[in-house]
Design brief:
The protein is α/β, with parallel strands linked by helices. The protein has ten helices and eight strands.
């Protein structure tokens, strides 16, 4: 079954609006793990508008503590490998670091890496991260030419940027857009890369994606799952997503 990593950035964003430390990022993480989530994700950005370095340390400590009873839990930190990000990741040592080429002022991640242009930088960064002992994933569009070059960087996985899929879902473009993701996943896997996915996946489009795109190892979901938690609570939301992933695996 595809594993579910819950991105808690939106909880941190809401907390940062006041000085009350509510809602708690750590408590939200506890509730997600208690409900069955397989891991937690944070995406700290240079402007610190949501996830803060202390959140990354706190969730990493939570994951390590919970492994006493659930040894497979993982912490994922994602972001553009600016110097301060690299320092943070070296300190926290998450299980997975997902490299994302978002600009300083990006509202959200909106494109994958251009490995043709940025391959040398990625190779150096991936090498540094793997020397610390973590798995490295790179955020990619379903662009076969670019994916074909990912092994040159030394990365272990790609994370497919799924906003185009989410926009096409339920429209006349759904099938051909999804076919592009199928081809991208198959190519990556033929090159020895694992495949993750994330961005705008939700309860409506997640199941179809994981049924059709082969062997997706992990999905990272934040905005939609946080929104659903406002109606269902964290426990209800996590269990709803897990049911979708279980159904897709049958």
């Amino acid at each position: 079954m595809t594993v579910l990593s819950v991105n808690l950035n939106k909880v941190a964003l809401l907390r940062n609006q006041r000085d009350l430390e509510i809602p708690s990022v750590v408590r939200s993480g506890e509730l997600c793990l208690d409900a069955g989530a397989h891991g937690l994700t944070l995406h700290p950005r240079p402007d610190q508008r949501h996830a803060l370095p202390r959140d990354c340390h706190a969730l990493s400590e939570l994951i390590h503590a919970r492994r006493a009873t659930r040894p497979g839990l993982e912490m994922n930190i994602e972001g553009n490998p600016f110097p301060e990000f690299m320092t943070l990741v070296a300190d926290v040592k998450p299980d997975q670091c997902t490299l994302v080429p978002d600009a300083h002022n990006a509202r959200t991640s909106d494109e994958g890496w251009n490995v043709t242009r940025d391959g040398a930088r990625l190779t150096e960064v991936v090498g540094r991260l793997k020397s610390i002992g973590m798995r490295v994933s790179v955020f990619m569009d379903p662009d076969l030419e670019q994916i074909r070059r990912v092994p040159e960087t030394g990365a272990d996985r790609i994370e497919l940027y799924t906003e185009p899929y989410a926009k096409a879902f339920g429209t006349k473009d759904q099938d051909w857009v999804t076919a592009g993701y199928v081809a991208a996943a198959q190519l990556a896997q033929s090159l020895g890369l694992g495949v993750n996915a994330g961005h705008d996946l939700n309860l409506h489009n997640l199941g179809h994606f994981c049924r059709v795109v082969p062997d997706v190892l992990e999905v990272s979901i934040g905005h939609a799952i946080t929104s659903d938690a406002l109606e269902l609570g964290w426990t209800g939301a996590i269990k709803a997503y897990l049911r979708v992933l279980e159904d897709a695996a049958r």
